[in-house]
């Protein structure tokens, strides 16, 4: 009996492990194992799979894309198998359109599919054409039919070098025919997924408009006159064309907005006039960035864009793009505003860049373990002496890790380092992050107004730094 087992086991009296306890622990481990397996199964069920093969191709890899702001954003890449096969297993962040494609080829080399968590899709690619293989989700069954209907139109529109070369004489009749069939096709979009039904219906309009307008923008052997355009072109421009941001959930959404603004705007190139064609801030932000980014050569230009159009960059994705553009211009062009910072000196006093407004600032990003940094110290001391009494301040920022802070304090004292000595707390800090600093020493020159003179200047051992400082002091007069 159970009671007898307690009486016969000395361990029971001294706090040992009983047979009952062992059994309970065994059951608990079994339960935990089952729960772990169940959770793993649930997690795996949330993953989506896209696989396929490429025929008649020469490329060695293929990429997976998601849609961000109306264009493809690469999220993964994989090598092709010897037979051209590939596969991606991932958890989609959002339900919607995804694509695989050739990362190094033009944007048209994208092959779309629609995914929800747990969906599977298989496709076969032959150069610039695709087809779904086997049983598909209800959404991809509809998408597959759309691709079959419009694929040749897409190829003729986007791949103007595809043989046989297409001209308006063969494109216009096909555009007219498919436009007529599209009306009936929309009636077949009746899945249980209302989100897909809405996006897919919108996509039929977006794709047709994009193929029609893009055809007119590409080089051709023969160009049509406006009087040769089929009736479809008269239906493209309408007030309030893009009532919501569904267009930015499609692979060619950004390109469509650009083509539409050009097509509807005619000779009007003023960006403010073009923005009137769009309904939402997101659309206006995407169009503005597309048009203005290629011409951004300096941070002041960037500031002007943000001042004029910043209200359109409210979404998380656009904010990220704008911030990345600003950071790039900060570190690649003079005239940009230097990033402010606050670090302690050797006595613990907090010092900020703004404390030196009205002076030319030389930042020295260094560390005690960096031999090239230490080699610059004698030249830096000499430079400090030469500019003594002038409106120039030398600020050295140590990137030593916390464990080496003592080494920094000792070196500052032993070598009687001059200027302003600050401790950033490690290599990863606001300054190194902002200027994307990967190697030290790094010297940065900032003018009296807090603007960059050089984000990556010559070192003190190079006479060019002294000349730059003298020039800045002359300018200030």
From TrEMBL:
Signal peptide: none annotated. Keywords: Cytochrome c-type biogenesis, Disulfide bond, Redox-active center. It is found in: Cell envelope. The keyword Disulfide bond applies. Residues 332-474 form the Thioredoxin domain. It comes from the Bacteria. Gene3D superfamilies: Glutaredoxin. Its main location: other. This is Redoxin domain-containing protein. It comes from Pedobacter gandavensis. The lineage of its organism: Bacteria, Pseudomonadati, Bacteroidota, Sphingobacteriia, Sphingobacteriales.
